[in-house]
Automatic annotation (TrEMBL):
Native organism taxonomy: Bacteria, Bacillati, Chloroflexota, Chloroflexia, Chloroflexales
Name of the molecule in the record: MFS transporter
Pfam family, one: MFS_3
Entry's transmembrane regions: 27-51, 57-78, 185-204, 234-256, 262-285, 297-315, 321-343, 355-378, 384-402
Chief localisation class: membrane
Statement: the UniProt record of this protein carries the keyword Cytoplasm: no
UniProt organism field: Chloroflexus islandicus
Positions in coiled-coil regions: none
Length: 423
């Protein structure tokens, strides 16, 4: 049931921001912008902390993998939870738990007691939280804005994620360089207050029923994916890009310190440049009309990602590296945001949580595992740029195979809402 509370003057919102005409979504948008800034600050500070404590590319990848392992284990089950229980309630629990974990990491770091083992355990626990948070959050979007503004809301979600990714790392790089990692973790813990407040202030229909018990069957969601070739192709492409082309993300501290020699502040700028490119992509997508050729744009971005990443690994000039990592950010977000959009247009409402849990697995579960594998090989070979470039080549080949085998006529009209709740 849609409970978005559209304002009477909704038509006055520019097309680029039309999802903001919904009061609940405006609350969500503002809360997420603050909270995600803290999240990105912690991400950059944590990477630098691990490198400082261990001097190991392998452990950088291992911490990222620890965060992803629970996503691989629990995200499919979490999708059934998102389809059966109120999504706001799930988000209140997951965001409160993430706040507590960030506070513990801040306390350990500020007290000087933090060890690699602490970081690994907290990353693992945060992965459990993310496994349940991401499917519920993505499926919650349609409840805030309805189907008519879903595409714009997904693009705006990506814009706040990447706007925070632009600001957070730049601030974190300076904070870490000046006073250490602890304050960045503390800010992240405090920032969760904004998203919790936004969720509590929303006006939702208390009579909205939970998902049907039969609709909670995991097998139904997997069966749907296996029998829907367009969704299957979209998910496979996302998995290939995530596993093979996102490997540079956990290894950025190595590029900053050992390849480009720009230190912690430079790591912040690299992450911010990637975020800026991603933000540009999200803002472009927010302006797309309903008749825009989304499949063609998705194909172009997915095919360009690997060549751009290979060029970044070979760059030794800092301004050029910043430009290339920014273009990688554009390609990555364009690929994933359009994949998210097309899947949500195809999937029926009663299967949304389960199908989006598989997308979450592809995006959040596979990416850190690819980073861990790349970090392990890089530690053995001593050549991080070559390992990242080789992984990108494999990802590009798989994307080409998907494009050659994908069904024709991939553009879809929105799936009709289910009236029976059966799967």
């Amino acid at each position: 049931m849609r409970t978005s509370h559209v304002l009477a003057d909704s038509d006055h919102w520019p097309a680029m921001f039309r999802a903001l005409r919904h009061r609940n979504y405006r609350l969500f948008f503002s809360g997420q912008l603050i909270s995600l800034t803290g999240t990105w600050m912690q991400s950059v500070a944590q990477g630098w902390l691990v490198l400082r404590l261990s001097d190991s590319p392998f452990l950088l990848g291992l911490v990222a993998a620890a965060n992803s392992l629970p996503v691989l284990l629990f995200s499919l089950f979490a999708g059934t939870i998102a389809d059966r229980f109120p999504k706001r309630r799930i988000l209140l629990i997951t965001q409160s738990t993430a706040m507590a974990l960030a506070a513990i990491l801040a306390a350990l770091t500020l007290s000087g007691m933090v060890q690699i083992g602490h970081v690994l355990i907290l990353a693992l626990l945060l992965g459990v939280v993310n496994a349940f948070d991401a499917p519920a959050r993505q499926a919650f979007t349609v409840e805030m804005v309805g189907r008519e503004d879903l595409l714009n809301a997904i693009a705006l979600n990506s814009s706040i994620f990447n706007g925070a990714r632009t600001m957070g790392p730049a601030v974190a790089g300076m904070v870490v360089a000046w006073i250490g990692e602890g304050p960045a973790f503390l800010f992240n813990a405090l920032s969760f207050g904004a998203v919790l407040a936004s969720l509590l202030l929303m006006r939702l229909d208390s009579q909205a029923p939970a998902g049907p018990r039969r609709g909670g069957m995991l097998q139904a969601g997997l069966r749907y994916i296996m029998t829907e070739p367009n969704v299957r192709a979209l998910l496979f492409r996302a998995g290939a890009v995530s596993f093979f082309c996102f490997v540079h993300l956990p290894l950025l501290p190595v590029f900053a310190r050992d390849i480009l020699h720009i230190g912690a502040a430079g790591l912040g700028w690299l992450s911010a440049a990637s975020g800026l490119g991603s933000l540009v992509a999200a803002l472009i997508l927010a302006q797309l009309r309903d008749d825009a050729p989304r499949d063609k744009l998705l194909t172009a971005a997915a095919l360009l990602y690997a060549p751009l990443l290979i060029a970044f690994t070979q760059a030794r000039n800092v301004p050029l590296a910043l430009v290339l990592i920014g273009l990688c950010g554009w390609a990555g977000v364009t690929t994933m945001a359009l994949t998210n959009t097309l899947i949500q247009l195809i999937v029926p409402d009663e299967l949304r949580g389960r199908v989006m849990s598989v997308f979450t697995l592809m995006l959040m579960g596979l990416s850190p595992l690819g980073g861990m594998l790349a970090g392990t090989i890089a530690e053995l070979t001593g050549n991080v740029p070559l390992v990242v470039a080789g992984s990108a080549v494999i990802g590009w080949v798989l994307v080409v195979l998907v494009e050659r085998r994908a069904p024709t006529g991939k553009e879809h009209t929105p799936a009709a809402p289910s009236t029976t709740g059966q799967t």
